[in-house]
Structure of ABC transporter domain-containing protein:
Amino acid sequence: MSAPLLHASGIDVRFGGVHALRGVTLAVRPGEVCGLIGPNGAGKTTLFDVLSGMRRPDAGTVAYDGADITRRSPVWRARHGMRRTFQRQQLFGQLTVADNLVVARDWRGGTRAGARHRERAAAVLHDCGLDALGGAYAGGLPVGQARMVELARALADPPRVLLLDEPASGTTADERRRLAAVIRRTAEEEDCAVLLVEHNVAFVMELCSRVVVLDLGRVLAEGTPREVRADPAVREAYLGAGAPREG
Ligand SMILES: Nc1ncnc2c1ncn2[C@@H]1O[C@H](COP(=O)(O)OP(=O)(O)OP(=O)(O)O)[C@@H](O)[C@H]1O
């Protein structure tokens, strides 16, 4: 098994009296799609904030490719191949879909690379089945299409780590199939380490090779989808009565 590319160890985060993360340890390897699930308030988004550098943990470390990056900024992490999407969509609504992808590469500077960035954007749009939408304004897209564009934008500059926050939220079954195919292909063909937070358990269980369950700021369980489904503690805390949607 390859070494973890992203490795969070003993992460603690407090918001005043709320202990949002309590000694969370989690590793993601190149080429794997790992799911992060758990009830509302379990700490999933807070952990994403720590991994992407948007929140400094009160304790614990984040390592990337073996180096401690706990104090590195979000921009540093992005420059080094870490990409994140958000629960609430963050597309540039007044730009076209293609320009959303070009911007995702141009931010590094070097405008002379513009033509290459356009070529890469076109290729990524093609791979994501979005050829027809390149000229459409991103602000006018239905939710499901916008989710795919967000994923495409995260791929515009080739990622080494992809943190996806509820990528399937608001999508149809057909859109989920296409999202899953692109995510799987990115992990396998680009050797990218993918971690995704998702409330749609069926989507996670189908797509991910490994699943981590958070509850009340702690790792409650970790394993293959089959192992996690069968875990009594997970069933009680998350998959039992009042479980989130399965499809
Ligand atoms: N900025 C903040 N200030 C105070 N408390 C916060 C803040 N952000 C999160 N929390 C609290 O930390 C805990 C974890 O929240 P977090 O949003 O990480 O959970 P989550 O698993 O992502 O939930 P959801 O599935 O609803 O998105 C919750 O109790 C939440 O109320």
Notes: Residues 15, 18, 20, 38, 40-46 surround adenosine-5'-triphosphate (CB under 6 Å). The chain has a mean pLDDT of 90.
